[in-house]
Amino acid sequence: MTAQEPQLIPKKKFQRFDSIVLASILVLFALIFLVLWQGDRVDLRVNEFSWKNKIIGVQDRWFSIKFNRPVNRESIEKNLTIAPSIAGKIHWIGEKLVYTLAELPIYGNNYQIILKDAKSLDGDREIEPYFEVFKSRDRALVYMGLADKERGQLILVNVTQKTKAALTPRDLVVTNFKIYPNSNKILFSAF
Fold first, then answer.
1. What global pTM score does this model have?
2. Do both 55 and 98 map to the same domain?
3. Is the domain of 101 the same as that of 151?
4. Is the domain of 104 the same as that of 150?
5. Bridge pairing between strands 110-115 and 80-83
6. Structural domain for 154, as ranges
7. 141-162 pLDDT, tens digit each
8. What is the CB neighbour count within 10 angstroms for residue 51?
9. Do 65 and 52 meet the contact criterion of CB atoms below 8 Å apart?
10. Are residues 132 and 52 in the same domain?
11. Range 20-31 average pLDDT
12. Residue 168 and residue 20: Cα distance in Å, rounded?
């Protein structure tokens, strides 16, 4: 019997694909380590304002502001400004500020929300200054015309923009009208 010679296992070289995968794994571990080492660097800011680009009326009684991280509530309440001022109360639902109006907004006004110099919950970050403008409805009224040119027509007068327009044609004579509660429609009878 002959002694068996030990067989040598041939060394396997990395294939190109294996090298790419290993390099990708090392790069991803390095990036993960860098993110963990740097920590959270997201600035405190307003994520959502419920009246953004909205025209408000008497039916709008509250607005909300959501933040992207926990905030120091006292700091937010102290630094929140509404110009011109509308009296109200601040309530918190989690990290969402809810401002309930104590008085009606004045029609024909532009209002501005300003929030700056407020702090995050841990106090290490200041909020990015936030400015937003919202409007109240224009001051307007509707009446039945009595003058010769307007006789029997519904006339809309926009006091804010200083315009006047007929809402019904001249061949209809309006006898009665009623404005819907949210002021977006008018019901009228005519002959």
1. 0.69
2. yes
3. no
4. no
5. antiparallel
6. 140-190
7. 888 988 888 888 888 898 888 9
8. 19
9. no
10. yes
11. 93
12. 75
